[in-house]
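Pilot study result, target chain (363 residues):
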Amino acid sequence: MIRELENWTPRLDNRCMRLAALLLLMSVSLYAEDVNEEARPMPAQQVQKPQHAESDEIDQEIKKYFSKIEDATLDVDQRRLDKIFQSGERANVPEQSPDTFNFNELGKNSATHRVQPKETIYAISKKYGLKPAELVQQNPELKTRPLYIGEDLLVEPPAKASIAAVAPLHSVQKGENLSTIARKYKTTPAVLAKLNGMSVAATLKEGKSLRVPGPSVLYRAMFKWPVQAPITSYFGRRYNPFMGGFPQFHKGLDLGAYLGTPFHAARDGIVIFSGRMEGYGNCIFVRHAGDLVTVYGHNKVNLVKQGDVVRQGQVIGQVGRTGSATGPHLHFEVRKQELALNPLVALGWKEVVQQGQNVAQAR
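Predicted structure:
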């Protein structure tokens, strides 16, 4: 028995050594795999890019509306606009006035004021014909902090200043002088000189604009702010938290009003859409003269329906946070059919009030 155990001992030692070596190799191999796995860079997680921007649903709805009326004979809404608003919607806008509506002047007007060094609330208010309290009311943040140099303030002149009277203008033609122009307008060279602050003997340059006697031309704001509230997001490129952080072009203004705040039609027109959308929740589209459309989104409730006629300043809904919204606000757009325009520019446009149309009608 002892001899048999002695014969087995080397065999067991060899087997144990082989088993230990095998276990060692396996552990080294597993460790190497772990090390290599840790050292290997992880593949980038594939993030799905948004298939479309939220504003696409507005684009598509407006495109669908205007595609149905490419034939003017089918444009019932245009005929309604002409019939209902014929006293003011077809006014001629003289080219001499730099403040009148002109699509070639896009971007040159603004309804904001950029604060300059040493400016005060009083000085800015006076510049725009406002009381300091009115300027603060339009920019509530000024109640708790001073002015910041370079910041943009919302400035809307008071209602009484929204209609301005401007003397008619005459564009000087080649060979004209004060005498020939005076005869044309049944006045005297002295009157023309006084109106324009010049000498009777002054030489006139071709193309110069002169004020002439006659009924004043009235101008009014083409659009009014739908709600008085601070701008929380401007027209232009921004990052949308609901679209995976990808940049998106924001085609309107976000006005941060309280939930349930009434908002108003920015201009006379006809409601062409009042319903629910995925991204912008409850929406209203109002069509105006010249194929202009205003859009009001994220509404708590729509107070008008498709086909309704609305007047500038009429309450048409309440501010909400329906659809994709981080908080209550009004999304406001101005469009020329599908083309999105900067609302800040549009809010600075002015139009002519026809002669014979009273101020109450002009609003």
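One observation from the pilot: The CA atoms of residues 153 and 336 lie 26 Å apart. A full batch analysis is planned for the follow-on phase.
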